Structures are given as structure tokens and as C-alpha cells.
Amino acid sequence: MAFEGLADRLQQAMKNIRGKGKVSEADVKQMTREVRLALLEADVNFKVVKSFVKTVEARAVGQDVLKSLTPGQQVIKVVQEELTALMGGEQTKINFALKPPTILLFVGLQGAGKTTSAAKLAQYLRKTHNKKPLMIAADIYRPAAIKQLQTLGAQLKIPVFSMGDKVNPVEIVRQGLAQAAADHHDLILIDTAGRLHIDDNLMEELEQIKTISHPDEIFLVVDAMTGQDAVNVASSFHERLGLTGVIMTKLDGDTRGGAALSIRAVTGTPIKFVGMGEKMDALEPFHPDRMASRILGMGDVLSLIEKAQASFDEDKAREMEKKMRDVSFTLDDFLDQIGQVRNMGPLDDLLAMMPGANKLKGMKNLSIDEKKIDQVEAIIRSMTPSEKNDPEIINASRRKRIALGSGTSIADVNRLLKQFKDMKKMMKQFMGQAKGKKRKNPFNMPFM
Amino acid sequence: MSFFSKIKNKITGQTEAATEKFRTGMARTRNSFSEKMNNLVKRYRKVDEEFFEELEDILIESDVGVTTVMDLVEKLKDEARTRNIKDSQQLKDVIVEVLSDFLAKSKEETALRINPHGLTVMLMVGVNGAGKTTTIGKLANRLKSEGKNVLLAAADTFRAGAIEQLQVWGDRTGIDVIRHQEGSDPAAVIYDAVQAAKSRGVDVLLCDTAGRLQNKVNLMNELGKIKRVIEREVPGAPQEVLLVLDATTGQNALNQAKLFRQTSDVTGIVLTKLDGTAKGGIVLGIRHEMDIPVKLVGLGEQVNDLQPFNADAFIYGLFAELFSESEDDPS
């Protein structure tokens, strides 16, 4: 739930302004003070914060706000716009080589997540762009770093080129490129060792790798939890190598991730991808505008919709809609739905994207227990087809059998049956009301 | 005698080598920090509101954290008022004194807790990429050179290559590693390691764990389970649960400290990667807001660059140049 803290703070800061008819200069001062504190606590570089606050102040106290009908909203809009602008406006896409292969170079400090990001991106681009990737293991310094890339490669069935840890990384890259050409790979990812931006020798090594490989993208991999130093790190790497993009990792933590704001503002290098989890598909394109909305607690509806589109089967959805309309929705369909929603990723993440979700009381600490959902699935799977079609026939002895079969208690089975009944009842009412009006949403689940 | 001379004297009593490590390891940190401080002092001869505002920025830029900075600057203002300090040169000493107070206000033992009569178990915890495995390798080497019989437990069964990484450290230091397959239950690895440690009469068992973000409830629960296994099998253990913290981390380090303490009763902090340009100011924040002492500091990539934390030496490393300038150049 990245940035959640920042969203909370800014919302708090704006509460006072929201209800008012007019915004006084003092109000704006008070709000920008809060914004400043919130951004600093979010690890946004203090220089960036200063200029940001000045811009907001100038625009907020200016005429467009005071003359507007809803000044509070206007201020929020200003903050959001400036935040989006600060993070780079539009989303930036990956630069593919006009003539293949496309070569991607991964650099960064120790422990930022280069190896993991390289593997994630290789599989992402294979999936989205139908590429044939090769990963080159050029980290000869950290113990077992090569082994790590090889293991990930084996998991994802992506070949890894390595020459052990006794050969100079520049030489490894040289031969790796030759290998890639021979095997007709159109995407090459070079994983390098983590290094300090002030380590002259190792930075020179990177310069040499750059010279011989002519990368199309040089990605700086940055830990989202990085503090004020992010700016120094990013500008050092940028000066020596000319970065083309940034990958922010570990953004699924509770960090406020202010480094994302500062790196872009100070180096002008766009953030292209974010790491959102430990699974190999937990890499997403970075959307500055959406992230700004998310910071302000307006929810990330676009990401949610996109996720839904990617994982929902359209025909099935249509069929489901029909079933809901004539209330022939069975437990089997319900099981199907659970599966589809789960395809979209961890439910916690989905919740975080819903507008206003972090405003609901108690929502902040709510974490959906995926085990409970496993339980629901187990219970339904322990039913016979006729039971699933007509839950009414489930009597006491059937309940007992289902509980035994699913490793749950009779109370659990009862709860589920009752919830399902309620849900159907609600659907009926809803359908009655909404007939011909709005499309309903299929997200009504007993465990939410 | 100025405050720095006092610290200096205190340190000369200690091993030269350790102090030197701090000096060289923190050279960059110190340079950038004291450079700014000196600039500040040069630009503002007078101690006024503007001076304090600038000082605030310097501290914030060192990741000290807004809350701590506010308290710190308040304190400095008070000191300046009561001592009637108007000249910024003089305030330098006060700044150092107050910072040291922040770091050493509680006199906790920053030394590692070792059970003198049997098995000591230490558990390394932390977020991904903080440097847990590397710290274990270095610490194992250190303990072995002190004549201890050490054993390692490879309970990071999740990350690809993590077991092999610890094995390399085991091979380098000639220390056995208890390991299972990748993907196996970490608590089972720990159980086996504890049994092995007991039957082999080992002095110190160092347990590596998988990196986990502190907001992942299930993973944090797993950590609680690991700790319970140790508690059940060895009364009084683990003697140390060390939170490994990357010095480049910003304010999220406070969350890390808080949540890891909740699930695994963190007893100390290892601050790694302090040899970069990161100022490690979060140490001040953590000391200020929590009672967890910093116990070890990573000052470089070499095997003996892991040093016991020493608040005085830390400050000395941070301000050495500031100090020598004010002594040599009384203008």
C-alpha cells in the first residue's frame, strides 16, 4: 500500500480547507506546512519539497483559487497536478532498439533488487512483447549472485549466460552478447553487481560495459525505502552512465516512497517500472498520474480496471451477468468468480486501489485472510454437483460430510450457506431495481 | 576542554584500529556533513532563526527525521539561549554535545549478549536486501576469530540463491551451515540447526532468515514461529534478535523497527552500508523514538568491516573534520 501514509497526511491537511467556502492565505500557509511535513516524512528530498511547496503556494493563493466556487477542491487539484508533474507527467514506455536485439543494463546499489528486477522484466517483456530474452550474469562479486539469476532463469525458463565468478564482467558481457547473437535472442538483460556510486573502480567497470554493449536502456534499480540519499545515488549514476530509466523496488511495503518523487525531479530520469511483490509477475509499469491520485487517496481505479480486464474472461463474465439477472447463480459460479478475482492478485492490493478504501474506518489495518478464502473454496469443492446447484438440499448430515471433507467445522459450512443465501437475495433485489439501468458489479462476496 | 577533546580522549583509550575503521568507513558521510556544517557556520556568523532553519535542513537531509529534528533544534535553541551563545562557531560544540546526548541518552549495553554458560542463538531479521546474509558471514568470522565455536542456519529458504550465498560464507570462514532445500519450511531448518548446535556443543548459532517487508502479515507471523521454535528448544534464547537496516533507508526504518519488534522482539540493530554517502541519520531517529540500541555497524565490503557500534566513535567519525578545523583555525 505504497504512499498510503502520504495520502492520509495530505487528506488530513486538506480537511480544514475542504469544508470552507473561501480559502484564506493563512489556510493555504497552514496546508502547505502540512504538505511539507508529509512530504519530508515520506522521504521526498528536502530541496524538492521546498520548490514543490513554493509552487503550490503560489498557485493556491493566486486568483484561480480564490475566485473559484469550491476553493478547497481547487487546492487539492493544484497539489495533485503539481505532484503528477513532479513525477514526470505521462507514463514513459520502454525504448526498444530499432534493430534487434534490445539491450537492457541494470545498475544500482547493493540489495536494491537488480537481479530480481531483471528476471521479472525479462518475463514481463516476453509476455507482453513476445521477446526472446537472454540474461547475462555479470555480478561476479556477491557470493552466489550468479546462482540466484540461474535459479530464477530456470524457474521462468529463460536462458542465463554466465562464465562463473573468475572472469572479468566486461569479458562476460562481451561473450554473452556474441552468444545472444548466435542464438538469435532479441532481448538481452545484463545483471551487474551492486556497487556504491562513489566506488570509482566499479563505476568505471560499468562505463566499460556500457561502451561495449551500447544498451538501449540503462535502468537504475532503487529501493523505494531509500531516504534523502536517493538523490545523490541517482545523480551519481546518472552523471557517469546517463540513465534512461528507473525501476523502483519493494513498493509493496509500507514505505511512503518519496524517493520516487525526488529522483525524477532531480535527475529528470523517468521511473518506468515498479516492483510490487516477491512473485515473478509482480512488476508493473509506473503511472505517474495514477500514482498522484493514489497519493491523494483518490484511489487507483484505472489500475484496478486494467487488472480486471487482464484477468477476466469476457465470455464468462457475460454468462455470469446473465445468471445474475435470472438469479440462476450457483455455488459453482461463485467458485468460478473467486478464482477470477484471485487471478487479479492479492486482495489486499486490490482493496488499496479502491477509491476511498483508506478512508474507511478500520480499513487501514484490515488485511484479508487469504486462508479464509481457501476455506470457502474447500467447502464448495466438498459438495456434490447437485448440492452446488441447489444448496437447499443440504441437510444436517450433508453439512457434516462437507465439513469433514473440507477440514472445516459445521459452523463454517453454515456460515457460508447463509452468506450465499443472503447474497442471492441481495442480487434479486438489486436486479429488480437496476433492471435496464446500470451494469451491476460482480464483486459482492460474502467474505468481504 | 572542548567536548570533542573529551570524546577524543575517551576514544584513544580504545583500540586504535576500531576507531580508525569508523574514521575511514565514514569518511564520505563525514565529509559531506561537516562540509555543510562549516559552510553554514561560515555563512551565518550569528545564531538566529535563519541559522536554525538551515540547520534543520542539514539534519533532515541526513535522514534524521522531521520529528527528531524538531526536538533537536528546540533543544539547541534552548541551549543557545541559556548559555547565551550568539556566535555560530561556539554553537558547533553544543550541536555535537546535544547529538551525542541523543545517541547515548540511555546507557544500554551496545555489546552483543552472549550466554557465557552454553549455547547463544542470534536471529537476523530485516527487509529484503538489507544485508542479513552478508552480516552473518562477517559476524561469524568475527566470532570465530574470538575463539568461538560457530554454526550457521540457512533459514532463508525463499530467495533464489540465498542458501548458496550463506554456504559460500561458511566455506570462506570454515564454518558449518545447516541447510535444507530451497522452498522448505524455515522453522524446520531452525529446529534442525538448534538440535545440531546442541549436540555439537556449539557456542553461537547464527540464524539467517528471508528478507520480508514488515507489512506482510503472513511473513511476519512466520518469523514469530521461527522465534518460538528457538525459545522452546533453548531456554533463554534467542539472546539477540538483530534487525539489519540499510543505512540508506529513510523514515521507513522507523516502521521497520516498530513492526519487527512487535513480532520478534528485536534486541538490537545492525546498520549496514554506512560506507556510502548515506548519513545514517536514522540512527538518531531510532534512538530518539525507540529503545532499540544499535549494536553493529557495517563500514565496508571487507570481512572485518563489521564493527561494534560505538556512539562516541560514531559522532567522532561524523564530526572529526569539523572538530579539527575549529581547533586548528580559531578564526
Automatic annotation (TrEMBL), chain A:
Subcellular location: Cytoplasm
Keyword Cell division part of the UniProt annotation: no
Alphabetized UniProt keyword annotations: Cytoplasm, GTP-binding, Hydrolase, Nucleotide-binding, Ribonucleoprotein, RNA-binding, Signal recognition particle
CDD domains: SRP_G (cd18539)
Domain SRP54-type proteins GTP-binding: 270-283
Catalytic activity: GTP + H2O = GDP + phosphate + H(+)
Enzyme Commission (EC) number: 3.6.5.4
Quaternary structure and partners: Part of the signal recognition particle protein translocation system, which is composed of SRP and FtsY.
Protein name listed in UniProt: Signal recognition particle protein
Described purpose of this protein according to its UniProt entry: Involved in targeting and insertion of nascent membrane proteins into the cytoplasmic membrane. Binds to the hydrophobic signal sequence of the ribosome-nascent chain (RNC) as it emerges from the ribosomes. The SRP-RNC complex is then targeted to the cytoplasmic membrane where it interacts with the SRP receptor FtsY.
Domain notes: Composed of three domains: the N-terminal N domain, which is responsible for interactions with the ribosome, the central G domain, which binds GTP, and the C-terminal M domain, which binds the RNA and the signal sequence of the RNC.
Gene from which this protein is expressed: ffh
PANTHER family, per the entry: SIGNAL RECOGNITION PARTICLE 54K PROTEIN SRP54, SIGNAL RECOGNITION PARTICLE SUBUNIT SRP54
Chief location bin: cytoplasm
Database matches in Gene3D superfamilies: P-loop containing nucleotide triphosphate hydrolases, Signal recognition particle SRP54, nucleotide-binding domain, Signal recognition particle, SRP54 subunit, M-domain
HAMAP family: SRP54 (MF_00306)
Residues that, per the record, bind GTP: 108-115, 191-195, 249-252
Automatic annotation (TrEMBL), chain B:
The name this protein goes by in its record: Signal recognition particle receptor FtsY
Underlying gene: ftsY
Residue span, SRP54-type proteins GTP-binding domain: 293-306
Family: Belongs to the GTP-binding SRP family. FtsY subfamily.
Topological category with respect to the lipid bilayer: Peripheral membrane protein
Record field: catalytic activity: GTP + H2O = GDP + phosphate + H(+)
Keywords carried by this UniProt record: Cell membrane, Cytoplasm, GTP-binding, Hydrolase, Membrane, Nucleotide-binding, Receptor
Keyword field contains Phosphoprotein: no
Organism: Sporolactobacillus spathodeae
